[in-house]
Amino acid sequence: MSTINQVAKLAGVSKATVSRVLSGTTPVKEETRGRVLNAVKSLSYSPNQAARSLASNKSYTIGLVTSNIDTAYYGPAASGVERALRGGDRHVIIACGNGSLEGEREAVDFLIKRQVDALVLITNFLLEEEIAQINLRCPVFVLNQTFPGGDDHHISFDNFAGGEMATQYLIDKGHRKIATVTGPLWKYDAYQRYLGCQKALEKAGLDLHFQAEGNFSVESGMSHMRSILALENRPSAIFFANDLMAMGALHVCAQQGIKAPEDVAIIGFDDLDMSQYYSPSITTIKLPLYEMAEATAYLLLNSIYRTRFPVKNNFSPELIPRQSA
């Protein structure tokens, strides 16, 4: 079994330099860093994690909280975070909130008690103010949301532009009776998408034909679609604030013999992987979730461990035209 002394000797540096390279806590010249990493690889050296933690007062472990882990949204996000952190030689402990506020709080407490160095929150129920309080206990990093005092701890996405883009697409297709089913409007992303929708309508001199507040679930999309189809004066197009609700809506349409886009055009948001395989395939706005999750992890590594990964802090929406609108 190789030792840190052997790595230092092969790389032609001191033990302290090897430690600095492996911990990522202190800048090291790229040429020196390369020699150390090559020596580590050549000798198949694996540092003693317990000794490393004692020396640095860090656990080199990150906590990841997701509201759920078995959905088309949270799965890719968790995967992106985990892969990037593992690539940065950090362990990840994942805790699931099981779709409730109390569950998310319990998951946060569980991870903090395990002395993680930081938390990545991909949650659905924790309010911004509560996240700010958690950040006082343990550094918090988020994607597609914000919290007071977290300007340097989040990866942002232009949800306003996405909502405007989705609605403008429907307007450009000739629709004038446009409805929207929003996400929970207390959530930052849902509210921004709604404001973007309103902006596009305002610029076109149109009023919103119908509005309902959903909760981002398939069941919510189904329920609101039934209500919309029961209207005497139906909209000709509907902007659903995420793909899951759009899928629920299309399912109801199929049950009632309503064709999209011939009878009603439907556009979603997120560009979940399954959206391209749905029938009809879903026109949507792409939110690059996996890439944003990776960027969040790199932002964390740079902030907590002083690494120097390149980080893209701001992401923009992209229209993905398909069959449903």
From TrEMBL:
The HTH lacI-type domain is annotated at 2-56
Keyword annotations? DNA-binding, Transcription, Transcription regulation
Q: Which Pfam families match?
A: LacI, Peripla_BP_3
Q: Which PROSITE patterns match?
A: HTH_LACI_2
Task: Please provide, alphabetically and separated by semicolons, the GO molecular function terms listed in this UniProt record.
Answer: DNA-binding transcription factor activity; transcription cis-regulatory region binding
- Source species, domain of life: Bacteria
Matching entries from SMART domains are given as: HTH_LACI
Q: What is the protein name stated in its UniProt record?
A: LacI family DNA-binding transcriptional regulator
Organism of origin: Marinomonas profundi
Question: What does the organism's lineage look like at the top?
Answer: Bacteria, Pseudomonadati, Pseudomonadota, Gammaproteobacteria, Oceanospirillales
